[in-house]
Specification:
elongated, two-stranded antiparallel sheet, alpha+beta
């Protein structure tokens, strides 16, 4: 039953992703697409499907459902993303991070134009918050 639910979930996700990519022509509004809101909607859809199929809601923290009170994170999408000493390109580069790394968000500026991150307990600095470079687990508006 769990395998069937998983297959059904992937089919819905693929259909939804296909619809979102072809539903509207690229406009200024479409270019401002909020990926975090889409991820949140997909997680809620997933939870509704699991509840319908099994009669039991998924456990918090399972397969993409954030644990209540869990820190917000971003996953890096590109190799060698610059980490800067402040929120802007006018600040010096202090290190870099690579695709696949997950970092904790501890602050933001400019509606997530720049996000303040740490790796474990070690503060790293500021990275671009563009969805071209990072994937959010929490919508920007809900970040610290």
């Amino acid at each position: 039953m769990r395998k069937q639910a998983s297959i059904g979930l992937w089919i819905i996700v693929i259909v939804l992703a296909s619809y979102l990519s072809y539903a509207a022509p690229p406009t200024a509004l479409a270019q401002q697409f909020d990926a975090a809101a889409t991820v949140t909607a997909l997680v809620q859809t997933r939870e509704a499907i699991i509840l319908t199929l099994t009669g039991t809601p998924p456990a918090p923290g399972s397969a993409g459902t954030p644990e209540p009170g869990a820190p917000s994170t971003v996953t890096i999408k590109v190799q060698g993303l610059n980490v800067r000493s402040g929120p802007g390109t006018n600040y010096g580069v202090v290190s870099s991070v690579n695709a696949g790394q997950s970092l904790t968000v501890i602050g933001k500026t400019d509606n997530c134009g720049w996000i303040h991150v740490q790796d474990g307990a070690r503060e790293l600095g500021w990275i671009s918050g563009s969805t071209q470079y990072v994937t959010y687990t929490t919508p920007c508006a809900d970040l610290p």
